């Protein structure tokens, strides 16, 4: 995580990793694929499926190898895929970072197995692994892809990382891998879906357009914990502060610092309205607010987010995430999480005053990430895949720091240094008005805030018939929504309805 990102955090790692480099020849010596017949069963419902781990060649237009993308697929068999029936959908799934493998969304979220969570408590070792009652395998075959430079995915010798570690290069690599998988598995007749989380939603937006241009029709796209406009992450940008306020409000209510005796959903909705009716006009006026008006607004904000009005006024009404995380529970000696602000941990020592260090200390991440990776590695051994000792579950220290944020916005004609990929979404949807988009977010997600997503889509001014193709889902969870088991259950129901819709 770089210094700029740590100040105003969006899709950034929970911990800055040590940079890991592996010789090119070792990275390309990948093991043979491995498969095993498995069974998912919850109650009386049963799905037989084949789990396969292996690599997809990512090749350029001339056939030159760009890299090998690691993939784990779950393909239903038997009664779930009867011979002669309509082809089952196939969904390509991934996390973000940039620099994250797909382990969280696989073994934490929608795969056939998941690590059982325990509310906002840190998981012990070994964690309990169960057949996932809300797995998306019930609706679709699943392919989990690791971005090049993460997991077991490797760049080919001679490939310049700058060509794939960026908004456009990354989406191009995924486009080629998806086409390669469809071709190798003869699934061109299957309905195709994308499921991206966090930075994976930026990838989704660009992929929607690229796949359409490659004549790959999409049936649907799921955006979980989305970020579309990178401008909101830049220092001093008022869109950042506007997006944070409803999340701060929800968190203050959760810890009993505001919103007493108000329903969770109603409190968040009121904070969304307050952001637009009171907070946004005040920020737009800057120092043109009189001292009396500034103090009045600070007192109103204090009642919403639970911090002292004096602190809010001193910060010119602009409370960043680090300030909120440090101060909300300061009287208890605790700091709150970033990916899920309901998590809390003991505050760092006073001498540990590094902004970058603090931004990476996240109780929400610490509670689950190691358990997910251990369960995934055990599963690979179970199906007979013998990978290298080092699996780069997170490679933020290399990939994220090297990321090229410039993006060729469709219809703009030049590379934009801070991309807004909603324009890709609009172009893709206008070209293919039969696809559907599900946008899912959490009230306690301070990494990709819900207000910003709603705002970004509203600024596309889509015609009514296209707006109807986009559905919004809001849950009482954080960034990794599936950590929260009530949310996981509701997401499962919502995804079932989404996949059934025409």
Automatic annotation (TrEMBL):
The record's annotation in SUPFAM superfamilies points to:
alpha/beta-Hydrolases
Give the top-rank taxon of the lineage listed in the UniProt record for this protein: Bacteria
InterPro entries, from UniProt? Answer: AB_hydrolase_fold, Peptidase_S10
Could you give a GO molecular-function term held by this entry? Answer: serine-type carboxypeptidase activity
Q: Which Gene3D superfamilies match?
A: alpha/beta hydrolase
Q: Which GO terms describe its biological process?
A: proteolysis
What name appears for this protein in its UniProt entry?
Peptidase S10
